Amino acid sequence: MAPRKSDGDGEEKAKPLAQTSTRVTRSMDRQTRSATKQNGAKAAGSVTKQVKLASPKRKKPATEIGRGAKKAKKDEEKEEEAAEVEDPTKPKIVIEHCKQCNAFKTRAIQVKEGLEGAVPGVTVTLNPEKPRRGCFEIRKEGGETFISLLEMKRPFAPMKALDMEEVIEDIIKKIK
Question: Does the predicted model carry a pTM greater than 0.85?
Fold first, then answer.
C-alpha cells in the first residue's frame, strides 16, 4: 500500500515512536549450533556425555513382505509341484490368456472353475508361461488344442462371441 500523502505544509509531523512487540515466536527460542557451542564454552566445567541410542527395529526378511514375498511364494509353489508325483491318468489343461484386457482373465477363470467342478482330478493352469498378445487358447498339456484364438485385435470380437458354457461342455466331452 502506498504511504499517505502529506498535507503539503512542508513540515513533517513528528511521528510517534513505534511500539516494540513483546510477542515471542518459536524461532526466537531456537539456538543455532554456533550459539550452543558458545554457551557451552562459557559454562566452564560443563561436561558433555554421549548418549547411545537404541538401534531401530530391523525389517522383516524378504520372504515375509514386499516383492521378495511374491518370489518366495512362487519358489515354494514350484517346489510343491515338483514334489507331487505326476499321475498320467489325470488330465492337465493349460489356459493361455492375454493380460491386455480383463475379458480374457474372466473367461479363463470361468473355464477353469467349470472344468475343476465337472471333471474330478483335472489340473487346470492359467498362463504357465508368458502369454502371447491377443491370445486365448485352451489346450491339453503337450497335446490336443480345444480352442485357439490368436493375434486378436480390440474389441476381441471372436472371443466375446463365444458361449463359454458350450465351450466348457465341449471340453468336458473331449476329456472324458
Answer: no
